[in-house]
Prior knowledge:
Layout lengths: L4 H22 L5 H14 L4 E3 L5 E3 L2 E3 L7 E3 L3 E6 L6 H14 L3 E6 L5 H4 L1 E5 L1 H5 L4
Helix pairs in contact: 1-2
Amino acid sequence: MKYTQECIDKLTYKIIGCAIEVHKNLGPGLLERVYEKCFLKELFIRNIDYRSQVWLPLKYKGLDIESGLRPDIIIEDVIIVEIKAVEVVLPVHEAQLLTYMKLLQKPKGILINFNCTNIFKVGQRTLVNHLYGDLPVR
């Protein structure tokens, strides 16, 4: 599939909708893995293709390194989603997502923190990189 910014933005809207649905049903205060499992079920219910906890290949100076890195979710092979359940989203959380985006060559990432009062207003951050900017708008 040839992706455009518009296509990726529509997918982002659907993804955030899944997070809102999970948060509406569970509320804040649970463990990250609980939210992740429910979020994956919501993606499945809405027929959104995803891969979860995929090992990230890492090359360092031409050598394969077993890094142990695993992005939480890769959606439709174009958007990385990182799930959190923390009091405060820290700069390191955004840096982690940006690094995953760079290493996997994905144009967009979404950081979702379920430990909040409102997913849409404060519980999610979308990040893009140069790959997104290089895509056609429509």
